Amino acid sequence: MGGSFSVVAVPAQLFTVTGSSAAVGAAGAVSFVALVVAALWTGALADVMDRRRVLLAAHIGLAFTYAALWTHAALGGRSVPILMMSVACQGVLRRRAERAGRCGQHPCG
Q1: Is residue 54 a contact partner of residue 41, using CB atoms and an 8 Å limit?
Q2: What would the pLDDT profile of 17-71 be if each residue is shown by its tens digit?
Q3: I want to staple 66 with a disulfide (CB 3.0 to 4.6 A). Which of 2, 15, 77, 91 is the partner?
Q4: Closest-CA residue to 78 (of 13, 31, 25, 24)
Q5: pTM given for the model
Q6: SS3 annotation, the chain
């Protein structure tokens, strides 16, 4: 649920803070770059490490990211760099979790 909620909440919060749809687009670009960078090493990591541990670590990381986003919003935070860093962390961790989960179901390749 956190992932689906953040897909709507973070862009809305960015637009509220900046008033710029370019900032929302930049967040999408940051997320995409993080996802591409994560794709380069998550497959190898999932092959070397126990996939359950990788999946657990990724989901714990996502939970911390969502908690940080909630705390930032609850405290009335207006920091665009913090929001962008959270978006990047989500991109990396989500890719890591998806890759580890998918590789556990069938061979990766």
Answers
A1: no
A2: 999 999 999 999 998 998 888 887 777 777 788 888 888 888 899 999 999 999 9
A3: 2
A4: 13
A5: 0.78
A6: CHHHHHHHHHHHHHHHHHCCHHHHHHHHHHHHHHHHHHHHHHHHHHHHCCHHHHHHHHHHHHHHHHHHHHHHHHCCCCCHHHHHHHHHHHHHHHHHHHHHHHHHHCCCC
